[in-house]
Specification:
Blueprint: E1 5-10, H1 17-27, E2 39-45, E3 51-53, E4 57-59, E5 63-64, E6 73-76, H2 88-100, E7 103-106, H3 110-116, E8 124-125, H4 132-138, E9 143-144, E10 150-153, E11 156-159, H5 163-177, H6 179-189, H7 212-226, H8 234-241, H9 245-256, H10 260-278, H11 283-289, H12 295-306, H13 310-317
Parallel strand pairs: 1-2, 1-6, 2-5, 6-7, 7-11, 8-9
Antiparallel strand pairs: 3-4, 10-11
Amino acid sequence: MDPAYRVALVAFPGIRAFDVSVITEVWGTDRTDRGAPAFDLRRVAVDSASVPMRGGLALAPDRTLTWLSRADLILVPGLDDHLTPAPAAVLDALRRAHARGTTLAALCGGAFTLAQAGLLDGRRAITHWNLIDLLRTHHPRVSVVPDALFIEDDNIWTAAGTAAGIDLCLHLVRRSHGAEAAATIARSMVTAPIRTGTQAQFIEHPTPRADRDADTLAAVRDHALRHLHEPLTVAGLAARAGMSPRSFARHFTAETGATPLRWLLDQRIAAAQKLLERTDLPMPEVARRSGFGSEVTMRQHFASRLATSPRAYRTAFSTRSVADSGAGGSSPIAR
């Protein structure tokens, strides 16, 4: 049995209970009976003293900062007060962890903690859209990206506000353990395993007015997902929605945060990932069923978006051996 993937939640007074809950839900729940990987989540603090959080809550650490040297992944929750100074020992430990090559990830305002440590100087980072100016003002050496859900630079991940922390956590699972593992956890959490787009769709529009286009576009997206293996064009999808291509693209981007073509590419990559994990289908058939048309095209998109090849992805994340696969495999994608 493979050793459990070691995850550290860095705790100190002022961290957000919501982010702690998200991290605990993703990595602290045993789902091995459903095929999910085994995780070893530890709550790491300067000492064993209880860590107070807003709302009368408290977190009980079970490891001290020395355990960070064993972690495969270190997570920094956001802050209730985004200018809360982190303990010097925490900042030192985070700097040492990054120097060792350990993956670091901050949810929402946790970017301020990484910035305090100097780890974001000269690097790209993101935080909640309402905190972008604050991060720029207090940490001018950080290259703040305003419109991403999450972003990586030099093995340091940061995420936009609240729900984007869930997106980042699931992405980190997908990155280390494959799309099927992330999907298993997402199903348990009753959330989407992957969202596309940027937080630009939420800026200044926290409660967009519902109109007829929402249901229409949802139906179009459902149609596209059921026909990914077929040629799909913006003009064709727009016609199905009863809109001009320009109007369709504008409404689609406003609702999803991604252009129709970008959204389609994301869905096809996700479909190919599932086929590579779940089946022994030959590469040309995986490419056909996921809508890429050719293995060459699929390989190009895997290289640009996932920094790997379809064959390498299957080797790393396949959940079944060729010997266990039925002839031709099975597929969640329409034939």
